[in-house]
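ok here's AraC family transcriptional regulator:
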Amino acid sequence: MVRPAFRSSSEPRLETTVFSDLSERIHYNLPSLPIYAYHEPLSGFAGYRCPCHWHRDLEFVHVVSGRMHYFVNGTVTVMEAGEGILVNSSRLHYGFSPERREAWFSCAVISPALFESATPSVAARCAQAFAQDMPDLLTLSPHVDWQRDMLDAVDRVVRLMPDDPQGNPLPTLAAAIDVCDMAIGRLLSEGARADACNADARDAAAGLDAGAAADAGADASAQASTEQRDRMDVLLMTGMIQQRFREPLTLAGIAASAHVSRTQCCLLFRRYVGRTPVEYLTERRLEEAKRQLGGTARAIAEIAADCGFSSPSYFASVFRRHVGVTPREFRERR
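and the structure:
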């Protein structure tokens, strides 16, 4: 199994900032260098689940120990120790453990701003690789040469990231550009392979019946349009929750924000967020409660009311069920 270097000299920063459209502000190691590179535990996130989010950055994950599930645009990939994943730019994603079991993983999140403006050809290559019709993800196995090389490259980025803000970031920068170049090349080749398969299918359909081929093309176009609309509806509904989670929201109200039925609302959340609307709302409220418990001296009852919980006792019950400790115990451990 490929083992990455451990960064024992600094603690991983597990805080997340997710905006109303589910985009995430990434807390980079060095503010002036748009690279996040840490070795971290899944237990650092509430309920062993990262918040659902997206960003323009490419995200690389290498599981070091345990088992980890990764949700990307409706697809869940299970990774064992030694395996990893590349998440393409601007895809909804999050890592989690449904059994709430520990997993340690190396994570490198790298902004295209590091290299995409180098030349017009590089910019065009990035735009093509990051397009929505390209692969959402690539799975990485230590048993496939090019995938093992990418896993090694992810470990190298994490290992080379300086702990000291005054340290030399150039080796990290070079390693980050190297792994992104590998990733972009593979995304383009996998995308071309998928296009070739689709072209073969269209040719086969055309050989049978020209009308059927036209219908197949129209169906594919309609499906892509529906997919795009569904994703926009999800962003509208999750955005509404992010902005109004303090209010007494209902399933009907969440669905109405995207002009869909309650049934469609639940289906879209399950597909693209991997949670029910109510579960997502509860997690958003808990994230805010954790922030206030750790960063303010407000009374627990005040925090409960401010985060949308109907009573302090209900807040305490939900908090303990999801976080594993009471709000008071959580505050005392900070």
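+1. Residues 17-194 form a domain with the Jelly Rolls fold (CATH 2.60.120.280).
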